[in-house]
Amino acid sequence: MDYARIRSPLYRQLYAGLPERIEDPRLLPVTRKAALMDRFDDWVTDPVVTVQRVQAFVADPALIGKSFRGAQTDYAVSTTSGTTGTRGVFLLDTRALEVAGVAMARWLSSLLRPATLPRVLPRVIAHRGRVALVVATGGHFASATAAARVGADSGGRTRSFPVATPLPELVAQLNAFQPAVLAPYATTAALLATEQQAGRLRISPALVALAAEGLPEGEPARIAAAFGAPVGNSYAATECPFLSYGCREGWLHVNADWVILEPVDAQHRPTPPGEQSHTVLITNLANRVQPILRYDLGDSVLQRSDPCPCGNPLPAIRVQGRAADLLTFPTPSGGTVTLTPLSLTTRLDKLPGVALFQIVQIVPTELTVRLQPAVGVDPDRTWTRVHRELTDLLADHGVGHVTVHRAAEPPRPATGGKYRLVHPYGQQS
Predict the structure, then answer these.
(1) Which of 18, 50, 58, 223 could form a Cys-Cys staple with 140, CB 3.0–4.6 A?
(2) Short-list 185, 88, 175, 86, CA closest to 133
(3) Where are the domains of the chain?
(4) Which fold does the domain 113-229 belong to in CATH?
């Protein structure tokens, strides 16, 4: 807090009337993405980091995974999709990246217990330590940025596979690559597990590492059985990539040595353990270039009220607001094609002129898009780009007969204030 108050003009103003020493974080005001992004240049603590420079950086896809130069050090840059109604641009300094690396090692060590090593190590050796990252590509998303940084130093052992790849092509590519570690989004892992069970996907990873989305109860166990490998899950955000990691009991343990996580109600009052929160506030204790202090993340969580049976003493939570839903479309031949929400949303996130969108599956063969163009752009031209991206994607997956329409109404936020970007058939709002 002291560093932010001294180095960030925005926090200096926010904390002007507060005591010099504060030990209870609940005395600090709540911050939100929209307000912070509106005052980006006052928010950051590095004076040469400006919104104009950063936006020029993220506009260039050739710079994905590259470092952004500050006054005395370099930063990693990532963007968010705008589920809270505002697209965010976030920087990680060297210390935050180091903490993220340590948190990843902590997560892996929790999965690779002595009892699992005899089964895991031979697979790692047999597949030469190859890692398959099934991630969003084409933009400066946190996953794409991390994949680019890791892949550049892996000597070809780490490879990124675009999440929007049609499933038969993705299966063929993974069969050829034979990864030792499979790291997809959670809903993509569910699809791949079905392909593995059907015999079309034939890989034997030593570890399956999930991220970004929630799964229905029982799905992690099914994925583990399909691949015969430990499955690890995590809950994080671009604002705090080392937020938590999963345990064998199905809970997520907060890295409380580097993150303060506060489940709260709609008035930002503490929610007791054992009760579902309205939202959650996070404080990132590692990142100094862009302080995240009592930041409203918009996700609903349940904090465990008793010690977790796994033995981990860190706070244990479950997340309600990150459950993602698959979209299923009928094919002309009588079959079905299933797409993950990220397959669609990553195609639109990269489009200029799109401030916010929601894709709603009205009927199995029809999508409607609630579109909010950016200020100052031509709405009709923006819609033309959106329509072309979605129809091309659907055609690539063999469901080009699905129609895409523009909705008359703008995107609608959910109860917690976040925007659910994709609504499958039967789950409209």
Answers:
(1) 58
(2) 185
(3) 2-96+236-319, 113-229, 327-423
(4) Rossmann fold (3.40.50)
pLDDT of residue 415: 60
As a whole number of angstroms, the distance between CA 175 and CA 44 comes to 44
**Distance between CA atoms of residues 255 and 241, nearest Å:** 11
Tokens encoding 321:
């607001």
pLDDT score of 324: 61
Fold classified for 2-96+236-319 = Rossmann fold (3.40.50)
- State the Cα–Cα distance between residues 136 and 345, nearest whole angstrom: 9
Q: Under 8 Å CB-to-CB from 238, ≥6 apart: which residues?
A: 78, 79, 80, 88, 90, 141, 142
For 74, the enclosing helix (H) or strand (E) is strand 74-79
* Residue ranges in the chain modelled with pLDDT below 70: 82-85, 113-120, 138-144, 147-155, 212-216, 321-324, 415-418, 427-429
Which residues, at least 6 apart from 366, have a Cβ–Cβ distance to it below 8 Å? 402, 403, 404, 405
Q: Do domains 113-229 and 327-423 have the same CATH topology?
A: no
Question: How deeply is 62 buried, as exposed, middle or buried, from its count of CB atoms within 10 A (0-12, 13-18, 19+)?
Answer: exposed
Tally helices (H) and strands (E) across the chain.
13, 21
Cα separation of 98 and 338, whole Å?
37
Q: In 3-state terms, the chain is what percent helix, strand and coil (to 5)?
A: 30, 25, 45
102-122 burial, b at 16+ Cβ within 10 Å, e below that, comes to: ebbebbeebbbeeeeeeebee
Check if the beta carbon of residue 203 is closer than 8 Å to that of residue 227. yes
